[in-house]
Amino acid sequence: MRIGRSLTSAPGPRHVVDLQNRLQTRITSLSAALSDVPETSRLLATVPRADAIRDKLAEPLLFQHWDELTQRAIWIASDGNHVRCVTVTGLSVLELADMWVSFNERLSRARFNLSPQLVREIIEAEIDVSVVLVN
Fold this sequence. Notes:
By secondary structure, the protein is of the alpha+beta class. The protein has helices spanning about 15-20, 35-45, 50-55, 95-110, 115-125, and strands spanning about 25-35, 60-65, 70-80, 80-90, 130-135. The chain has one domain. The radius of gyration is 19 Å and the shape is globular.
């Protein structure tokens, strides 16, 4: 005779549906020399407020943005000669908020060398989500 609920680690039906509906967390990265105008334009083509950013790329810059419309986080880093754009999809704004402070600290320790590998390491360490690098 059993009393109460079964003690099992199997997820309930709702939990299984939530996991199946969750988008895969993906990181894409593009980089370009600022002297390569067409490639820099391609990199900035999908970035909100790209026109305001473009003029500032000739000096060291780190830009972070959460795009609510497309549900993606965007980081742009420039050393004045090269620019890199790293985009993360498949996370919620709350998950990203959990990692912002750590992200800034770890990026500082990496001497602001923004890379898709660094972003993946931070996400996997801070919010325990596996990440796929695309490109």
